[in-house]
Amino acid sequence: MARPRIAVCLSGCGFLDGSEIQEAVLTMLALDRRGAELLLCAPDEPQTDVVDHLRGQPVPDESRNVLVESARIARGDLVPLAQVRAADCDALVFPGGYGAAKNLCDFAFRGARANNLVDVDRLIGECLAAGKPMGFVCIAPALMAIFGRDHGLHPRLTIGTDPGTAETLETMGAVHEPHAVDEIAVDEEFRVVSTPAYMLAHSVSEAAAGIDRLGEQVLAWCS
């Protein structure tokens, strides 16, 4: 039996301007340890900004590329998001980090009026049309809420218990479910699963609990 192939879309390297590294690695581990083949990808686009992670401050006049930075996590083994089609994978997962809200969409800046990157929107749409499962970690459920708003869909999602972010997702038409860090929200209709991770987690082990359950659910749908 062929191993399920799961596309994991990264958004850079570092939680303040790219993928949350621990969430990305935990996602990869949860899928790999269950026998999945990983197809890592990222947009070949400039980052929205660059942040000094030691000081938590933006770095003026510095530019980095999302694909190049994501290659740090992928050990160089990844492809541009524009080249990935739903036919290339059995499921799609988006780890969190501010890069998901800055580089994959502009939710960090525009809230309920945000738009997804064109290739993010395209791939989500292709996976939905093909009935392929999708997982969203931390703030990444905003990507699905944006898609849902633009296509009249009402996916069930969680970003944990933050009332402001939850209200914004519901303004966009999503159905937000409050969940603890080790829990998942499961939408059987759209085959979408989400977990709060570092929206709530205070340690890597806390983040791992929900991400592991998300990986288990994604692969259960693939079987």
Structure report:
By secondary structure, this protein is α/β, with parallel strands linked by helices. The protein has one domain (5-222): Class I glutamine amidotransferase (GATase) domain (Rossmann fold), CATH 3.40.50. Helix content is 36%, strand content 16%. The protein is built from eight helices and eleven strands. The protein has helices at residues 21-32, 66-74, 98-102, 107-110, 118-129, 141-151, 163-171, 204-222, and strands spanning 5-9, 37-42, 51-52, 57-58, 79-80, 91-94, 134-137, 156-157, 175-176, 185-187, 192-195. It has a seven-stranded mixed sheet, with helices on both faces. A two-stranded antiparallel sheet has the order 3-4. It has a two-stranded parallel ribbon with strand order 8-9. Strand 10 and strand 11 (192-195) form a beta hairpin. Helix 1 (21-32) packs across helix 8. The longest helix is centred in the last third of the chain and has 19 residues, at 204-222. The chain is globular. The mean pLDDT is 98.
Note the main attributes of this structure.
Rossmann fold; 223 residues; two-stranded antiparallel ribbon; 16% strand; alpha/beta
List the helices and strands and how they pair.
Layout: E1 5-9, H1 21-32, E2 37-42, E3 51-52, E4 57-58, H2 66-74, E5 79-80, E6 91-94, H3 98-102, H4 107-110, H5 118-129, E7 134-137, H6 141-151, E8 156-157, H7 163-171, E9 175-176, E10 185-187, E11 192-195, H8 204-222
Parallel strand pairs: 1-2, 1-6, 2-5, 6-7, 7-11, 8-9
Antiparallel strand pairs: 3-4, 10-11
Helix pairs in contact: 1-8
